[in-house]
Amino acid sequence: xxxxxxxxxxxxxxxxxxxxxxxxxxxxxxxxxxxxxxxxxxxxxxxxxxxxxxxxxxxxxxxxxxxxxxxxxxxxxxxxxxxxxxxxxxxxxxxxxxxxxxxxxxxxxxxxxxxxxxxxxxxxxxxxxxxxxxxxxxxxxxxxxxxxxxxxxxxxxxxxxxxxxxxxxxxxxxxxxxxxxxxxxxxxxxxxxxxxxxxxxxxxxxxxxxxxxxxxxxxxxxxxxxxxxxxxxxxxxxxxxxxxxxxxxxxxxxxxxxxxxxxxxxxxxxxxxxxxxxxxxxxxxxxxxxxxxxxxxxxxxxxxxxxxxxxxxxxxxxxxxxxxxxxxxxxxxxxxxxxxxxxxxxxxxxxxxxxxxxxxxxxxxxxxxxxxxxxxxxxxxxxxxxxxxxxxxxxxxxxxxxxxxxxxxxxxxxxxxxxxxxxxxxxxxxxxxxxxxxxxxxxxxxxxxxxxxxxxxxxxxxxxxxxxxxxxxxxxxxxxxxxxxxxxxxxxxxxxxxxxxxxxxxxxxxxxxxxxxxxxxxxxxxxxxxxxxxxxxxxxxxxxxxxxxxxxxxxxxxxxxxxxxxxxxxxxxxxxxxxxxxxxxx
Length: 586
Description:
Elements: E1 7-10, H1 25-33, H2 39-46, H3 62-75, E2 78-83, H4 87-103, E3 108-112, H5 125-133, E4 136-142, H6 149-157, E5 161-165, E6 182-184, H7 200-216, H8 223-242, H9 249-261, H10 268-276, H11 286-303, H12 307-314, H13 318-352, E7 363-367, H14 375-386, E8 390-396, E9 399-405, H15 412-418, E10 425-428, E11 432-438, H16 442-456, E12 465-468, E13 470-472, H17 479-485, E14 500-507, E15 512-514, E16 520-526, E17 531-536, E18 551-557, E19 560-563, E20 566-569, E21 572-578
Helix pairs in contact: 1-17, 3-7, 4-7, 4-8, 4-12, 5-6, 7-8, 8-9, 8-11, 10-12, 10-13, 11-13, 12-13, 13-14
């Protein structure tokens, strides 16, 4: 059966009484389950304000960075923005590009993004030298560079001022930080910045905000510069969602207001991207970024060169912008096909090599047939099936290069650091990382990394869990209540979509397969007052295991279906238990 595969974790019995009257009862229980039981705090969570963003000058190194960039504009120096090749780095590059051009439309601003396969992640010394030879007086990195000691030394030797803005994990020791003009990072040693979870685009937005206030001579900007910053919020939302940083604190504010701005952005290339994704005129949610906009920007960096995506979000206009956006969609389709082939092969190899059992709690695989630019996504798919840390590597000659993804409870960056004697390079954070190693070290790396996973993960950690916010009856799942749950968004890491456990219900009639080849399943449940349909995506082969009349407990994501003017609640099935013994298990 498709369901009954998770551990269900119910969020205790939070007291929602203080929220009574001010919130829908179901919404109140979800808020209380997430620690927002004070009416004032709950109200603030549902209605965040831009004034909750912290003063950018609290970021270490930011004022020095702003000084140097403004001086570069005054001196007509060339400023090079060096960004990572993922959505976060692309968005961050565009943020600084647009604010510098807004301050001075004739500013000499160029962008650089490394080729994922030819150059690898982050700052590299050769690129720094090339930019210096092109006449760059200042190089500012975005979403990379905090461990780039050699490139920083090359910049200093070339007489170029290097500003590093980043959010990735810091070096193990403070004396390993790069020697740059300015390091802008929320978690630097001795940092007093109140929020350490900004992504690269979030850090870039803070620098852009300060550049805007300094250029305007006022802490409050208005007119055209205010509109520019609102457009930059949209870019910051792209990076924040795509980089899967926690959607709380400042990240939630940036995302909430950035998503609102996306449909109205004045950045032409971003409009063309929205158009190519079929989202013109739509309300854009975090899912649209995560599954439609973000993958299109990412795909070109995985299979080609991300400079096209940077061009789209910076300088592209007219037919050129439309051509790039349409091209990104085509490359994304190609990426999906490549991804499917790798996933099928990797799943079979993992099972064949005994990496899916309790005695080996990590998957580490390499193949000459895999594309290094796509393996990171494939890691996430394998985690969805086998729920264990996964590293996939593309082997080219005597070198293996790829990506890893992790699960809660296993710090991927720390595990790679423990095996760094076998690696040529690695970098990233707790949940995602990139790495490269010599093929001669592959077998030892597989064993040592697997040993790290076996030591740090228990058998229970390999069983995916779902955290249930609260119980709900069929009667409570009304359209207005579900709409109000949406006000708790945007949803993502640290603020997932609300999940409720339906209790006191029975299967009211035989489940009905639907969709191509009956791949999906409608499960009809109800109590004495009402019946609703639960939608089980890819549950089509489970209908025979759900007998009519049986008691049922189901974990669902409340959803509204609007079709031909008819509005109904059709929750999406996450997991279920059927039978007289159906009960919540911790």
